[in-house]
Each structure stands twice: as structure tokens, then as C-alpha cells.
Amino acid sequence: MDRMNGTPPRKVSFSPRFSLVDEEEEEVGYTKTGEDVRAGLVTQPYSHQGGTYLHSFNVDIEDNGDDVLLDWEQYSRTTPRWRLFGKEIGCLSPPDWWYHLTKGQRRLLFLFFIGATSFTLILLVMMALASLHFGGGPYVPHPDIACEWNEWRLPDWVKPTAYSLDFEVNMEEPWTVEASAYIDLDVLHSTRCVVLHAADMSVVEARLGGDDGLVAMNKTYDESLEQLTLRWDDAISVGEQRLYMTFTYPLREGMAGFYKSTYMDDGKEETLAATQFEANSARMAFPCFDEPHLKAPFTVEVVTSKDYTVLSNMPAKKVHHHDTQEEGLQAWHFETSPPMSTYLLAIIIGKLESVTREIEAPAEGVWLPQLEDQDGKVSEKKEKRVVQVWGIPSQIQHLEYAADAASQIVPVYENALKVAYALPKLDLVAIPDFAAGAMENWGLITYRQSALLVSPTSSLADTRYVTLVVAHELAHQWFGNLVTMSWWNELWLNEGFASYFEYLGSEAVHGNMSFLDGFYFENLPKALDYDGKNVSHALSMGNELVDSSGAIEGVFDAIEYQKGASVLRMLRAWMNKGSTRDDWESQPSEDDPFLMGINEYLRKHSFDNSTGVSLWESFDTSTELDLLPLMNEWTFRDGYPLVTVSLDGKGNIKAKQEKFSVSEEMSCDTENLWWIPISFVSSDSTTQIKWGELNACQSLRPLITLPKNGWVKINAGQYGFYRVNYSPQLWSQLHDAVQQFDSNGYPLLGGVDVAGLVEDSFHVAGHGITMEVFLKFLQALHRRPVDEAGPWMSALPYIRRIDNLVSCQKDWSNFVSSSILEPFIENGTLSGNLGENLVDFFTFSGTTEIDGVSNPAELQMLRPAIIDIAGYFGTQSIVDEAKSLFKDVAKGKSPGLHPDLRSSLYNTIAKVNKKNDMSTMVSMLKSAENADESERIIRALGIFDHGHDSLKLSLDPAVKAQDIGILMDSISFHGGNKAAVRLIEWMQGNIGPLYEKLGQDTVAGRKLGQIIERAAAHVKDTETMSVLRAIQDESSDILEDVRYIDRAVESIRSNAKWVADHSDFVCDWISE
To answer: What is the pTM of this model?
Structure first.
């Protein structure tokens, strides 16, 4: 960014409807002539006290002999003429500028030239002597350096070029894996040692040159670095080499590496073997160079019992029984993959069944990523692809929805990106035990069952979740697999893109589920809260900040996912601001400049790695837009701006920026300014979004001039990743605006904009306004349409949070019930003046669907949310109905109970807190057949308040290891400060058993760190900070990344500050 005039350098300006920058230049008096503008020049006047002057110079010269200027005409006539062999050599004559120097200046310049020349010659001689002494050329490591390697990153002079892996897996006790690996190497410098990753295995043999090659004389293992060093007597020569290794280990008990997953099928326990390698667990399955930039092709063979199906990234090219194998075994040979990172390799062995869909060949104009064959040719043939969705036999009927979604989303991405899916097949597999939601292994995507299966008990929320997760992992086939971040410090290049594109894919195939409308309240609040902490980090961090397995696990956070997605969406919205299509986001077009840049990025870096800089540079050629200076602060700086909007006496709206902070007042840093795209709507134009830019501390010209009593809403559509504060008068006008409707019965301000006002007003309290602004928005919610979920989805977490933090909980509960919930439930209306009676809608047995509703999905989402919060605050009619229904549900009956309301029912019963109901739910959990039902029961079990009973369930076999986080998060979220403090104190004494149940690896450490961090978000007692520090000191080997505890401590301080600043005010305000 050009800091002189505050304008971002760019090759082509997508002219906004209004530019703050251009207006500011006029305000300060810049003078631009036509020639200046065409040349990119600006003449800036010089202001001094009372007047403005053009730049001028006044030079006085004192005659002291040497510095007297000569008579140039006379001097030029006596200029010496240089001759060679009688011919005049004009090029040896001094240049014209030489004659404009004084004698003293020429003498100094001549002496400087002689000195510089002498120094350069001496330096060159010294370098030549050093070259003779040390061998010259670039740095060459000594052959023994790798033998003493003690750095976390691998040496960079031995790189893999191909893997050939053979696994023989025993699917019975003792669950042994006996395996071998051929690794083709490119040795850049002669070395006696090869250093690679390996963990939790016994390396039997290592040879150089193949299976009959030279045996390594020594194998040493560094457990802390998870590195295996192989040494030979003679140095390995530069060039192509082949490493052969054999190794063995048992299938792991955790959920990382190559592990076993158990499940019940027809009353019998069955076992499935699965891999989970992201981020650093491929080394648990085979010795490898386990860093994302070290890509190589993989050829895989798996031998196991013929009773099992085996899947890997590529199609099986041959399945047969070897004559040398024991009877009953079968070998699966898979085709060779394209170059990919080790963490993307996958193998599944299980008694699986599938449903199949076919995807048409990529459309005309879609580029097919291909590598050259041995003859240097690239195939242009486009063929149909097969999608198979796999699960255990008892779940086969629940795979249809995911198969339909996947087969429809792939073409959506291909047509938007103009880049085809690169592999010949695509498998999606539901795993009974799975730590994450899903994993994007190239061509073989793995999911926890609740993220892939849709059953008759699935609610709309469950179905939306499956759609989003399927779409997320499919997006990774381009962002992460085809193009991979170079190192984990820029994980957002994988996760940020996938977290945004999942909404585009989902919206395209199920537009009736309001995915894009939900992007804001499902992503922004979490990301803004996380990034508002002092212990945050930039999207692209320095490599040195991600220098251990624990640190890598720690970056899988809201910054890399939700902030990454939000920043990309903000940029795309600004780049499409000139579009005449309202559906530019949901229906991608070929002239979308953002997608044009992404196409260039994918084509340029396919089968390779990338960085944040290379992403922004990809837009240079495709859109002629220089994004790097614009996106610098968003990419390489933590935090985000607070945009403060003011109104003067003439109705002029101006804006200023500063870094947002909860803990302290901030001022604008002129050296670190965000380029902020400003979208807005106003009382003059309620439906058309207008745009401006702010890249200075504050605007000098108005963004817009409002009429009397007019209003303006900044960050219209909530595309921007920033918070907005207004002057008190503007807040008051917006309070009125959110309750106004047009002549057709539709609100003037859209639901997402009202959600943004609710979110911002809570967090900017203390920045010139009080909590009264937020509280008035809560009171206005009952006037909003019932078929509009956004405002409520934003408000409900804060309603619960205030209940947890204020000292007047009973008064707050009464206020919420009487002033917020009851008016909405009893008098709610629908958009478009629909006269439907909604009195019974917010009950367990009321009407489920209403004809003619503008947003049926939002209406369906809001119903269980309102019933749930009413049950939380003890609304008697809801509680009584829940008690009556639960008696039947506990007996296996569901009289008219819609799947959307099952969670609300269980949560309401749990809040009543009867111990026999808790026992009933534990029994229901043990007999639950569907994953979504199991998870909603586990969440309800976290609400019961019977001492440590819920906490102890985390170690009970009834709660699977993969679900411990669901239980613990529910305990702290629903129980607030008291339950969260209890959880943290209990974990101090039980972190060891929890770590063991979770698998005793870095993934387990990340899960425990996240549980503690999320629990602390509900704690206001500062004494708990010492408990957190004690946990860190006592369990540093488990919680390797100290930032979990640092963020937890900061959350408690933030809550304590909120109590000190706002609790009394809120209590006084609601009592008036």
C-alpha cells in the first residue's frame, strides 16, 4: 500500500460507487492535472501557516574558491578530446552532468570512485582466496551433518520422489501390521545419513539400493523429534537413490495413524481399520518424509483377509490371492497416485457396503489437471467419474443423501473453478470412531458417522451439517490436495478456502436450506471473538511459530478456518460489487474476477505447494489487480479493525478505523492500516448495497449525506471482517429501522444486517456506548418476522452469556421471558403480511410447516432454538409438555415428535435435573442406533447438574472417545461459570485418563486443550486462572502448545472485565 497518499497501488481500479480515498485527496487539496493523472502523478502543495505554496527552491552560493561554478560555455569549448590511434573517442569524454559540478564536488567524486574501486577489487581477491581454500560454490553440507541432526524440520538435501508401500494387516488379535516401503530419493548433497520420520513402530531393516541393497550400519531414533536416522559407512552419492525398509507395529487404539475402530453389528462386535494422518501421523504408519511440501506419488498394496473390502486413494487395479500367501488372504493393488503430501494418504479395511452415483465428464472449458506420462504427453480425455459412499452394513440405507449431495457438488465446483476433479474415482466413508468431523484424503474422504449419515431421526440441523461437511471435504480436493500450503503456518490456504466454498457447494444443490444466509452467524462471531484476543495470530504466520507437532495441531483453529473463509468472502464481495446480478455469490459466472484469479492460482500450482503471497500474485495476470498490498494486513497481521461511524450536524457520515480490542483503548496505527471495503445501505436505498473503501485512519469527505432522521447501516450484508460502532444518534436511528417494514410487509433491514447489529452492539459496549444499545435490540427482536433466523441465532448465545455473568440471574431470567420470548412466541408474524396463526407453533406438538413462507428453512431452524431457550429459562408450558412427551420417548415411542425438536426435548428434561431421567438417558445412549441421536443425547447428559456425574461419563465406555468433546462442551456451555470451573478442576486430576482414552498422541492433546479453552470461555472467577496454569505446568507433555491455556486465561480476564464494566448496569436497566 502506498503510504504517501493512502491509496492502494493497483493496475486496474474496479471503480466503486463511492471512494473515500478519492474524496480525501480532493479535501486536502491535491492538484491533479490531466497529464498527471494519466502518468500516475500527483502534485501536492506545501502548506505553511497561513498559505499554500508550490514547491520551490532558493539556493545561495558562497564563493570559497573550490566551489565556484565555471563559465559552462567557455569550459565546454576547452573540453579535452581523447584520441586512440589518431581517432577521436567521444565515449571517453565526461558526461554533461560532470560539467555542472563544482571543482570541489568533482574532486570528492573522483576520490570516492577510486576508493570504491579499490575496496571492490580487494573484496573480490579475498572471495577468490576463500573459494580456493573452502572449495567454492554454494553451501555444501558435510556428509556427517545429517548423522547428528537435532532440528525439528528435516534436512532439505534428501527428498522423496516416489513411495511404494506394502502392508499386510492382520484383522484379528494381535492386530499386527507387517509392512515394507520402497522410497525413491533425490539426494542433492552427498551424505552418510538419511533422516526421515517414524513413530511407534519397529524398523526391522533398512537398505540402500533396494531389498538386496546395502544394509544401514546404524539406526538411531529421536523420540522427541519422531525422527529415524539411518547411517551407512560410505557417503551416499548425489542423484537418484532407492531406500528399502521393513517395519512392524500393531493397529493403534487411538484415532490417529493406522488404527482400529469397533462397532456393533447384529449384536456382534466388528472391527474396521482406518487411517488418519493429518497433521503428523503418517509417520505412525510408515517411515516417511512427513512434511507437506515433500510431495511424491504413492503406490499401495494391502494384503488382508478376503472377508474385508480395502480402499485407498486410487482405484484398485487388481485384487487376487498370491500363491505364496496363506489361504484366506487377498492382495489389493492400487494404481499410482499423483504427487501428494503424506498426510493425504489413506487406507480403509472393513466389512463395508456402498451406494453409487455417477458424475458426468467435466464440461467444455473446464481444465483437466494432468501430469505428463513417460513419453511427455498429457491426456486431454475427459471421462465420467464414479462416487461411492461407504458405511457399515447396518447403515447402508442412510448413505443415499450424501451420495446425492457429493455427485451434485463436484460439478458445481468444476464449473465455478474451471478446474476438474483430478482423480478417476471418489470414495466417502463413514467411520464409527473418528476424532474430527471428516478428513479430506485425496479420493478417499473419511467422516465420522454423524457427518455423513442422514436417517429418519435426522433434523434439519443434522442434514445441513452433513451437507456442509460433505461440501467442505470436496472443496479440499482442489484446495489442499491439488494445491497444498507449503507449511502449516498457512493452513488457511487449505481450510479457509474449504470453509467458504462449502457454503457455495451446499447452496448450489440445496438452496432451500438457507446456507449462505447462515454463513454470517455460523462463522463470523466465532472468528471475531477469537481474533479479538491478544493471544491471536495472523492467517499467515512465521514458520518459527509452527515448529512442533503440538504447535501444528494448535493452528487448526477459528483463524485458519472461519477467519480465512470470511476474508475470502469479503474480497469476493468487493470484487463483484459492480455485478448487476443479485445471485453473483450463489450462481458463479465466468466473469467473476475472484474466481478468475482462483482459476489461475489452481492451474499455476496444481500438484504443487503454494503460499499466501503466491495466491495474491495469481490475480495479477488473471484480473490485472495487484492484491498483495491490499490484502497485506488481512493476511500477515492478527486482529481486525473497528470502524467507527459518526454523524455531523449536516447529516454527513464519516468513518475511522482502529484495531479492535476488548481489553484496552486503541488508536489508529498509520503504519499498519487495513484496506477496508465498506458496504452500506441507508434509508434512501434500503435494497441496493453501495461500496466505498477506507485505507486511511479516517475519511475526510462524507461516505453519504443523510436526510433528517435518516439511517445508514455499515457492512451491509455482513461481508466485511470487522466490527462497526456508531454515534449514539445513529444507534438510535438503527433501533427504529430494524422495526420498520415496507408496504408489502417485508422488513427494511435484512435479517443478516440485524444479526450484525446485535453482534456488534454487544462487543462495542464500553467504546462510547453502554449495554443499553444491545438490550434495546433484544427488545426489538419480537417485532422481527418469525421466518427469519439470523437475528435470533446471533442473539441467543449472548442471552445465555449474560445469564451466566450477571449477579441478578433471576431478574435476567424474568426479563428474557417476559420482555423478549413471550412477546415473540405469542405475537410473532411472518414476512409478507401472511396472516397465519402462530400461537401453537413454538410448542413440541404444534404445526410443523406453514405454506407460503418466504424462508421455510429459517422458520424450521428457529422453532427448536426458541423452544430450547424457553425450556432453558423454565417457561412452564414448555417444561410441562416436555415432561409428558419424555415418558413416551424413553419407552421408544415418539408420538408426533418432529426430529427437529428431539434436542430441545432432551435439553429441557435435563435442565429439570431429575437423577432418574439422567439414568434413563444413559440407557437410551447405549441403545441408540443412529449417530445423530447419540450425539444429541450426549449433549443433554452434559446439562444434568449432579456433581461430577456428567464429568465421570467422559471416562465411561458408554461415551466413545470421539464424543468426549461433545459432552464436555455441553457441560460448560449449559452450566456456565459453576459447571465450567468444576470441569477445569476435575480435569486437573483426570487429564491422564482422558489422554489415554483419546489415544495418547498429539491429536489427543489438541482435543484436551480445546476442551479446556472452550470451558474457560464461560468462567468469570479469576481464581481459576491459577488452576489453568497448574494444569499447564503439570501436563506440558500433553498440552504441548501453551496457547490453549493462554487463550483460556485471557477469556477469564475478559469475562471478569465484562462483569466489572457491565453487570451492575444491566441489572439496574432491566429492573427499571
So the answer is: 0.86
